Amino acid sequence: MLRFILFAVSIVAAASCSQAQTSSQTCGDSALPDGVRSILASEYGNWRVEALADLADDYRTAWTKKHAGACPGIAPGHFENKNELSYALLLIPREKGKAGYRFVVFSRKSDKDNFHPTMLESDDKYAAASCTIHHVDPGPKFDEEKFAAYKLKSEGIYLEFFEASGWIYFWKHGRYEHIVESD
Question: What angle do CA 59, 138, 110 make, to 5 degrees?
Fold first, then answer.
């Protein structure tokens, strides 16, 4: 019986380690293309991608249940063009304890070789420990501000504020727009 308990404990510990390692790998620079990493280094040197460990305990648990293995600070998708992959990033300050975030999408424009950043949101007062981003598939959504149903025609990005609301960003007529959605 003691062997069984020790075996079970070692399996749980290994799974926890594996999950933490997977999350840190998916949130690391290696998860991003060279062009995005280059812009991060030159223009966002004081910022880094939000990782699972940056979330408050309750939010980390909720995130893991809904998005196991995904990074809460990286959302790849075909946001602007069905043929080109873009990368939405939720950046937080490198300095521990400092508030603020930057919500930026990196996309290739007409010069297909280079990525270009588009700042969607920024805040220097709000701590991002209860904020995440993730990919949203096209389909029906509900706009809380206008209290109306809405059909998302392309892939989008959900900027989620746990225990509050979220904003779905999507590309329309050559620019990003958003709708407000509530949990």
Answer: 100
156: which 2 tokens? Answer: 């989008």
CA distance 134 to 156: 9
**Model confidence pLDDT, tens digit, residues 64-113:** 999 999 999 999 999 998 889 999 999 999 998 899 999 999 999 876 77
**Residue 71 near residue 90, CB atoms below 8 Å:** no
Q: Tell me, what amino acid is at 145?
A: E
Q: Are 168 and 157 in contact (CB under 8 A)?
A: yes
pTM of the model: 0.81
26 neighbors 70 (Cβ within 8 angstroms)? yes
Give the residue extent of every domain in the chain: 2-182
